[in-house]
Amino acid sequence: MAYWNQRTVAKRVSCTGIGLHSGKPATLTLAPAASDAGITFVRMDLGVEIPARNEFVVDTTLSTSIGSGKARVSTVEHVMAALHGMGIDNCRVEVDGPEIPILDGSAAPFVCLVHEAGVKVQSAGKRYLVVDQVIELRDGDKVARLEPSDTFAVEFTADFGHPLITNQAFRVTLSDRSFEREVARARTFCFRRDIERMQAMGLAKGGSLENAIVVDEFSILNPEGLRFPDEFARHKVLDAVGDLALAGMPIVGALIAVKSGHAMNQALVRKVLADPTSHRVVRVTAEADAPAIRANVPALVVPNGQIA
Ligand SMILES: [Zn+2]
C-alpha cells in the first residue's frame, strides 16, 4: 500500500526578474499553504487571489494567463510546471505585477526555489485526477490526447517546419526527480523572424538571449548553444506539464501531444473536467507518521492498482 501525503513549501522564498512579454520587473514569492488549498496566485499589488485552475484561464496567446475580475497573472506555466514536477500540492505564489518573471526561460530557477524553501509534508492525502477514458482534441495536424496510464507521462512531438526543429519528440514519465533532471532546465524558444511580429503585438518586450533560445534560419543565436540536443521538445513537455497542472491536481494519465500549445492544452483540460465519465478524482490515504520535512520523494508516480 502506498501512502502519499500532500506537500507545500516549508517556508517563504523569493526571487526577482522581468516578465518575458511585459518586460516589467516582478518579485515572486512561494509561500506555504494549507492542505487542500491548491496553488493560488496572489497579485500582491492588487490584493487579488486567483486559483491556478483551468476555469480561471483568460488568455493562451504565447503563454498561459489566469485572471479574476480585472486582475490577471500571465506566463504562469513555468512556475506551475516546477511546483507540479516537484510534487507541491499547495502553495501561494505571490507576485507584485502582472507577469511571472521569466528568469532563464526554464523552470530550473523555480525548482531551485522549492529546494531553498524545503518541502513540508502535510497531514492530508494527495488527490489525483485519474484518466479513465481517452480524451482527444485534433486541429489539422495538431493533436492533444490524454490516455489512461499507471503514471503521469508526457510525450510531445514538436515540428516547426524548421531544419533544427523537425519531428523532434521527447517522452518522459514524471516523478520529481525526472522532472528536475530531464525537463526543468529546457528553455523557452522563439524564431528571430517572429520577434518583430511579437513585439508589434506588445509581446516579448523582455525577451533576450538571457531568457530564451533564439533560432534564425539555420542556427541557434545563443553563444552557449543548447542545454539538450532536443531542448525544444523538452520545453514543450515543460509547458504541457505546467498547463495540465491547471487541472488543479496531479493527473494519472499519459498526454500524447503533437504540435500542441497552451490553447490546445487548456482546451484538453477543460474537456476532461467537463466530462465526468472521462476521469475519477481519487484521494489516497495519508501516512500518519510521515516525517514533517521530506525532500526527493517521488510524488507523481502512482504504482498500478494502489489508488483505486
Ligand atoms: Zn514555455
Automatic annotation (TrEMBL):
Pathway: Glycolipid biosynthesis; lipid IV(A) biosynthesis; lipid IV(A) from (3R)-3-hydroxytetradecanoyl-[acyl-carrier-protein] and UDP-N-acetyl-alpha-D-glucosamine: step 2/6. It catalyses: a UDP-3-O-[(3R)-3-hydroxyacyl]-N-acetyl-alpha-D-glucosamine + H2O = a UDP-3-O-[(3R)-3-hydroxyacyl]-alpha-D-glucosamine + acetate. Keywords: Hydrolase, Lipid A biosynthesis, Lipid biosynthesis, Lipid metabolism, Metal-binding, Zinc. The active site is at residue 262. Zn(2+) binds at residues 78, 235, 239. Pfam families: LpxC (PF03331). Belongs to the LpxC family. Its EC number is 3.5.1.108. It comes from Anaeromyxobacter oryzae. The gene is lpxC. This is UDP-3-O-acyl-N-acetylglucosamine deacetylase. Its cofactor is Zn(2+). Catalyzes the hydrolysis of UDP-3-O-myristoyl-N-acetylglucosamine to form UDP-3-O-myristoylglucosamine and acetate, the committed step in lipid A biosynthesis. SUPFAM superfamilies: Ribosomal protein S5 domain 2-like (SSF54211).
